[in-house]
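no rush on this but wanted to send it before i forget. theres a chain ive been looking at and ive put its sequence and its fold in C-alpha cell form underneath. please have a look and point out which stretches look like helix strand or loop to you. thanks a lot i owe you, the record is right below:
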Amino acid sequence: MLKPDAVQRSLMGEILGRFEKVGLKVVGVKFVIADEKRLWVHYNKDDAWYLKKGTKIVEDKTAAGLKVEKEAIEYGKDIIGALVKYMTAGPVLQFALEGNEAIAVVKKLVGSTEPATSDVGTIRGDYTTDSYAICSVDDRAVRNLMHCSDNAEDAARELELWFGKDELVDYRLLVEEMLYDVNLDGILE
C-alpha cells in the first residue's frame, strides 16, 4: 500500500514500476481513502509489540531531554494511532502483486521500515530520510512511503481485508515465459 506521502509526492508510478521491472505482476489496484476501523485491523498489533515500541520511544524522549508523560505501552499504542491518523489523511494506493518469492522481493526492494537506515537502492532509502527518533519527538507516524506484508500469513489476511475476490485479476503476462519457463519452449516460434 502506498501511503499518503508517496501519493502526494507523485511517486506512485515510479514505485509500481520498480516492482514490475523485477518481474512481479500487478493483479489488483485500488485508489482509496482508507477507513480507520479497517486500518486498526490491518496493523493487528498485540501488547508485547506496543510495549517494545513504546519502550524505545521513552528512551528517545529521555535522550532528547523531553518529559515522559505516560507508560511505555501507551506510547506504543500511539504509534498505531498516529499511523491510522496519517493513513486516513489522504488517498492511498493499494495493490496486490504476484510472482516468485513476491513477499521477499517486495521487502528487499522496499527496504527497512525506518527510512533513515534503509539501504541505498531501496525505495525507502532512495526517496525519504525520515527516522523513528524524529517521529518520537514530533509524536507522528514515520513517513516511509509504503506498507508491505511481512510474511505469507499477513499478506493473505491483508488481501482479504482490502480486496474482494472479484477485485484480483488472474491473467498471464508474456514475460512470465522468460521468467519461469524452464526450457524456454516456444521462444523461437
